[in-house]
Amino acid sequence: MISSAKNHSHLLLTLVFFIVSFSLLEPVMSWILILVICATVMRTALYLELHKHAPSIRTLNLLALLSAIVLAYFSWQLGILLGMLNLLVLACSLKLMLLRSDKDYFQLITSCGFLIGCGFIFQQGIAFSLFYFALTLVLLMSLATHISPNLPLNKLIKKVSVMGAQAIPITLLLFMVLPLIGPLWQMPASKSHQTGLAEKVTPGDIANLSQSAELAFRVTFDGTIPAPQERYWRALVMENFDGESWQVSPDRKAIQRQYKGANREFSPILEGNYYQYQVIAEPTHQSWLYALDVATPIGASSQQKVWQSHEYQLSSISPLVSTFQYEIRSFPQVLLNQTLSSVDKRINRQLPEQGNPLTKQWVAETRQKYTTDDDFIAAVMFYFSSQDFEYTLQPPLMPNDQVDTFLFVEQRGFCSHYASAMAYMLRLGGIPARLVTGYQGGEQLDSDYMSVYQYDAHAWIEAWHDDRGWIRYDPTAIVAPNRLESGLRNALNEADLLLGSGFGQLSTVAWLNSLRNWLKDVDFFWTKWVLGFDKDKQQDLIKSLIGKITPQKLAMFSLGAVLLIFALIALFFLPIWRKPKQDKASYYYELAEHLLTKVNLHRRASQGPADFVSQVKNKAPSSITEPFAAITDLYIQHHYQPSSISQQQLIISRMKSHWKQLKQAMKKQKG
Questions:
Q1: What is the DSSP string of 239-286?
Q2: Dist. CA 147–CA 141, nearest whole Å
Q3: What are the beta bridge partners of residue 439?
Q4: Can you give the residue range of the structural domain that contains 645?
Q5: For residues 449 and 279, what is the distance between their CA atoms, to the nearest angstrom?
Q6: Backbone angles phi, psi at 20, to 5 degrees
Q7: Which long-range contacts (C-beta less than 8 Å, at least 24 apart) are formed by 225-231?
Q8: Which end of the chain is flanked by fewer CB atoms within 10 Å, N or C?
C-alpha cells in the first residue's frame, strides 16, 4: 500500500485529472464534476496530512453503485460517446479516491491519458492543443516522480523534456503516413451546441449575432478576390413567413428529402468567369455551408462531402462537429433560373392572412401606380432611400405588426428588418420573393485569404423575374452603403460600437492589432495544414515523394516509414547507441588516479581501491596520500554504503575539494 502523504506524483496526477475534467465542462455532467472536486479535495488533504485515511473500500463500492445507477438513467439522453466519456470521468474520480497501490496509480495514469485524448474530440484549436500537450508533460512528470522519487526536480524535468522532444519527430511521421479514417462514432448535435445562423430568423436575431466576434469561416482564393460589395456568402434560404419570422419552408425540406433519397443532386449549367477558393468552416453542429453565387464543389473530396440543392444552397452530408474544409468554384455571371420555376413561385408567394394592414394598403396603392415588376421593385427601393431610415444594432421592440411598425413608425433596424420588410412587400405585390441569410464581406488578412466573423452575418432578399430567374436585392445597401463597402463597423453609429460586439477600441491600437493579425495567421496555418490534413492532402504528399502511386510503391513507402520509426526509437532508447554515463564519484576518483600516474603510481586491474591506497602510502609523501586516501574513502562510501540524495551530493562536493588539494600537492611535488 502506497501513501499519499507528501507524495508528489499523486499530487501531480490529481492536478492533471482535475484540470482535464474541467476542460470537458460542457460534455461532463455537473454531478460528476462535483465528484471530481470531492476526489481532488480528499487527495490534497491526504497529501498535506490534514487527513490520515482514505474512504473504505465498502464506502467506495456503495458510491460507485449509486453513481452507476444515476449515470445509466441519464445515458439514454447522452448517446454512446458522451455516456462513455462521463463513465470514464466517474471511474477516474472513484479510482482517485481509492488510490492505494501501484496498480491503481498506473490505471489512473492511463485513464488520464485517455481523457486528454477525449479533449481533442471537442477542442482542436492550437491553444487547446498546446494546453493538452502541457498537461501530457505534467502527467509524464507525475509518472517520472513515481518511478524515481529520489531524483532531483531539475533532473526529472530534463528527463521528461528530452522524452517529449524525442516523441515529436515520431509523432509528425505517424501523423503524415498513418491511413486517415473517418470518425468511428457520430458526434451529438444538441441545440446547446449549435452556433451561428439558424433555420428560423426573427428580425433582430442577426443583430444579436452581429455582436459576436467569433470566427465563422476562412477563405483562401486561388487568383482574383471579389470586391467587398460582391462578397455575399449564401448560407440559408428562408421561404416561409408567418408575419413575424422567416424560416426554411417545410415544402422545400420535403423536396430536398425526395431528391436526396433518389440521389439526384442539383447540378446547374455553369459557364463564364469564376472565383476558385477553399473554405474552412468552423464547427456549428449544423449542415449548411457558405459560398458565393453560383457555386459548385470541385475535387473528388469536396464533391463527396457537399450537397447542392435547388435553392443554390450548399450543405454538408453530416453536421459540422469540427472544422470542415471544401473547395468551390463560383460563377457570378450565371443566372439563378435553372430550377423548377413553378415550385419556386408557389412556395414564395405564400402570405400570412393576418397583420400589417398599413403595409398591405401601401403596397396596394403603389402597385396600382407601378404595374410592372421592375417598376414596383424600384418604387420599394426608393421608399427605403427617401425615408429617414437608420441602420442600428439596437432596434426597438416591435411586438405587434412588426412590418408596419418598422416601415411607418420606428424606421430603425438591422439588415434582417429591411430584408424581411421588402420580401413581404414584394409578395404582397404578387412578386415571388424570399429571404436569404449568410454573411457579407470579410476581413482580408493577406493577399489571398480572409476571415469572416459572426458580426459579418447578413440578410438580403431574392425576387423572381420570369426572364432572369432569382435576382438579389439588398435594401440595407440603400440605407447603409458603407456596410457593403467597408464592413459593419463603419456602418454603425458610436452607440452601437460601444456594445460588447468585438469592435472595441483596442483594434485601433497598432501593436495590438499587429499581434491580433499574427495570432490569426498562426491559427489559420494550424487549421489549414494540421486540422485540414485529409486524405487528399496525404495522397498529394505521398505523390510528391514517390511519384505515381502504385500498390508496390505504396507498400515500399509504408515499409520505409515503419523502418524509419523503428530506427528513431532505436537511436533514442537502445543501450547500444547510448553512451553510458559515468557518475561523479567515479569521475573524480579516476581523475585522482590519473594524477598519480604522473609520479609513476599505477593501479593494477586486479587491485582494489583500498589496496591501492596502501601502495600509495608506502611510496608517496603525506601531502599526496592524505587527499587521495580521503577521495578513496568517499568513493567506497558512495558505492557501497546506502545514502540519501543530499548525502551523495555532499560526498561529491568533498571529493571535488580533495581532488583540488591533490592537484595542488602534485604541482608542488613536481616543482
A1: -EE-SS-EE--HHHHHHHHHHHHTT--------S--EEEEEEEPP-SS
A2: 10
A3: 233, 457
A4: 584-670
A5: 10
A6: -70, -30
A7: 225/275, 225/444, 225/448, 225/450, 226/275, 226/292, 226/332, 228/441, 228/442, 228/484, 228/485, 228/486, 228/487, 229/477, 229/484, 229/485, 230/292, 230/332, 231/292, 231/440, 231/441, 231/442
A8: C
Q: Which of 471, 487, 507 represents a domain boundary (last residue)?
A: 507
Average pLDDT, consecutive stretches of 10 residues, N- to C-terminus, the chain (671 residues): 77 95 92 95 90 84 91 83 92 92 92 93 87 94 89 86 88 82 55 66 76 87 90 94 91 89 89 93 91 92 90 91 90 91 91 91 94 95 93 83 92 91 95 95 83 91 94 92 65 46 53 75 81 78 85 86 86 63 81 87 85 88 90 88 81 91 84 61
Q: For residue 9, what is the enclosing H or E element?
A: helix 8-23
The answer as to whether 169 is a domain residue is no
In a domain, 575, yes or no: no
Residue 635 lies in a domain: yes
Q: Which of 121, 150, 179 is the last residue of a domain?
A: 150
**Residue 200 bridge partners (DSSP):** 247
Give the helix ranges, DSSP H, for 48-152. Answer: 57-78, 80-98, 102-122, 126-147
Q: How far is residue 517's CA from residue 562's CA, in Å, rounded to a whole number?
A: 39
Closest C-alpha among 199, 180, 182 to residue 285? 199
Length of the chain: 671
Angle between helices 645-670 and 622-640 in degrees, nearest 10: 160
- Parallel, antiparallel, or unpaired: how do β-strands 215-221 and 449-453 relate? antiparallel
Residue 472 phi, psi dihedral angles, 5° rounding:
-80, 135
- Taking a C-beta distance cutoff of 8 angstroms, is the pair 436, 237 a contact? yes
Number of structural domains, the chain? 3
Report yes or no: 363 and 408 within 8 Å, Cβ to Cβ: no
Per the DSSP assignment, residues forming a β-bridge with 297 are 328
Residue 613: cis peptide before it, omega within 30 degrees of 0:
no
Nearest CA to 437 out of 286, 274, 250, 239 is that of 239
Q: Are 405 and 398 in contact (CB under 8 A)?
A: yes
Of the candidates 106, 139, 135, 109, the one whose C-alpha atom is nearest the C-alpha of residue 20 is 135
**Same domain for 48 and 130:** yes
How crowded is residue 342: how many other Cβ atoms within 10 Å of its Cβ?
Answer: 8
- Backbone φ, ψ for residue 315 (5° rounding): -145, 155
Say what the pTM is: 0.71
DSSP character string of 326-370 = EEEEE-TTS-B--S-HHHHHHHTT---SSS-HHHHHHHHHHHHH-
Domain contains 255: yes
Instruction: Say how many Å lie between the first and final Cα of the chain, rounded.
Output: 63
β-pair partners for 413: 391
Please report the DSSP string for 178-220 in residue order. Answer: SPP---SSPPP--GGG--S--SEE-TTHHHHHTT---EEEEEE
How many other C-beta atoms are found inside a 10 Å radius of the C-beta of residue 166? 15
Q: Are 318 and 186 in contact (CB under 8 A)?
A: yes
